[in-house]
Amino acid sequence: MMGQRIIGLYLARRYLTAMLGTFGLCAILIFMIDFVEVLRQSGKHGSVPATTLIWLTLLRLPAYTELLLAFAVQVGAIAALLMLNRRSELAVMRAAGMSVWQFLRPAVIVALLLGTFAITVYNPVAAAARAEAERLFSQVFGRESNFMQSQANGAWLRQEGADGSTVVNARAALKRGMELIDVSMFQYDKSGAFIERVDGSRALLEDGYWRVENATVARVGQAPERYASFLVSTYLSPERVRDALGTAISISFWELPGIIEATEKAGLSASRFRIQYELLMSRPLLLLAMVLMGATVSLRSFRSGKIQMMVVYGMVGGFGFLLLSEVSRQIGVAGLVSPTVAVWVPVGIAILLTLTVLLHQEDG
After folding, report:
1. Is the pLDDT of residue 109 over 90?
2. Which of 1, 173, 263, 353 has the most Cβ atoms closer than 10 angstroms to its Cβ?
C-alpha cells in the first residue's frame, strides 16, 4: 500500500507538472499575441506608457487562458504519458500488476482538482481582471467598448418596470451594461399600448430606474420635449444585475446564480448566463474527459510504431470535441435545447466514448 501511494504521488506530480507547463506555455504565447494587439491600439491613439500596456495585457490574460484550460490538460496528459512510456516506466508498472486504471487514477484526481480550482478561484479572478481591463482599455484608448451583442443598428433588449415594459436600443454599453451610450427607449404601458419614445446621449442604471441624460421625449400627438434628465422605471438593479447586459464570461461563478434570478425577474432572457453557469459546473468532468481522451492515444508502446500519428489523432479529436461543445452551447443559447442538455450531453458522450476505447484497448 505504501508503495502504491508513493507511485501515485509520483504520477500525480508528473501529470500536474506537464499540465501546468503546457498551460504556462499557452499563457506566454497568448500574452505575446495580445501584447502586439495592444501595441497596435496604442499606435492609433498616441503614446501610452509601456507599464500601462503590460498591465492591461496581464489583466486580459486570465480570461483568455481560462478558455484554453481543457486543451492544456489534454496536451499535458499526453505529454506525461508519452514521457512515462518512453522511459518504460509504464511497462514496469504493468509488469508489477498495475492496470491502466491505476496509473490513470492520479491524472483523474489532478484533473478534477484543477477543474474545481478553476471554477471556484481562477474564474472569479479572471472575471474581476477582465472587468478592470475593460475599464482601463476604455480609459487609456478613449473609446467605448461594446459589451452588448450588437447588430448593425445597435443592441436591443426588452425589460420590465413599474410603469410597464420598455424596449431599449443602444449603440454601445460601458461598465458591463450599467451605462448605455446613444440610447433609445420605447415605453409601453401594462396593457401593451405605446406611451412614449425616449432618446438620450447616455443612460445610467440606478436603483429601480434608468437615468437618461439629455433626453428627448416624444409622445403620440404631442411635440417632442427635452429634459436634462429623464427617469425610466426598471426592475433591473445595479447590485443584482449590473452584468445583465454584458458578456457572460465577465461574470464570476459566484455571481451567476443571483444574476440569473434577477435577470429573469426583469423579463430578460437568462439563457446565456445559464449556459455559462452550466459550463463552469461541468469543467471538472470536462477536464476528466480530456485526460481520458489523451490516454487513448498515449498508451501504445513506442516499439509498435505510429505513436506520432496516434497523438495527432488525439489532438484532432480534442479539437473536434471542443468544437462540438461550442456548437452545442450555441444551440443552447438559441433556446433550442435546455442549457443542461447543451452542456452536459457532449461531456457525457466524450467520457463514455473514451472509456469504451480504453476498455477495448486494455481488456479487448
Report:
1. yes
2. 173
Question: Quick check: 258 and 319 in contact, CB under 8 A?
Answer: no
Closest-CA residue to 301 (of 8, 81, 108)? 81
Q: How confident is the model at residue 108 (pLDDT cuts 50, 70, 90)?
A: very high
Among 235, 237, 229, 250, residue whose Cα is nearest residue 174: 250
Q: What is the CA radius of gyration of the chain?
A: 26
Identify which of 287, 268, 256 has the alpha carbon closest to the alpha carbon of residue 110.
287
- Could you say which DSSP state residue 98 is in? -
Query: For residue 185, which phi and psi values (nearest 5 degrees)?
Result: -125, 130
Entry field: residues in the chain? 364
Q: Which residues contact 22 (CB under 8 A, 6 or more apart)?
A: 72, 73, 75, 76, 79
214: left (phi over 0), alpha (psi -120 to 50) or beta: left
In the block, residue with C-alpha cell 484608448: 141
Task: Tell me how many degrees the CA angle 357-325-319 measures, rounded to the nearest 5.
Answer: 65
Question: Grid coordinates in use for 286?
Answer: 470536462
Backbone angles phi, psi at 282, to 5 degrees: -85, -5
Given a cut of 50, whether residue 362 has pLDDT beyond it is yes
φ, ψ at 306 (rounded to 5°): 60, 25
pLDDT tens column, 244-253: 445 566 677 8
What mean pLDDT, rounded, does the chain reach? 81
Strand order in the sheet with 179-188: 155-161, 164-174, 179-188, 194-206, 209-219, 225-233
Q: What is the pTM of this model?
A: 0.71
Give the cell for residue 119.
471554477
Hey, which residues does 212 pair with through a beta bridge? 203, 230
Q: What is the pLDDT of residues 291-308, one digit of tens each?
A: 999 888 887 665 555 677
How far apart (Å, rounded) are the C-alpha atoms in residues 261 and 12? 40
Report whether 289 contacts 317 (CB < 8 A). no
E-strand stretches of the chain: 155-161, 164-174, 179-188, 194-206, 209-219, 225-233
Tell me which residue of 135, 147, 149, 128 sits closest to 253, measured CA to CA: 128
Q: Where are the alpha helices (DSSP H) in 45-68?
A: 50-67
Burial (Cβ within 10 Å: 0-12, 13-18, ≥19) of residue 134:
buried
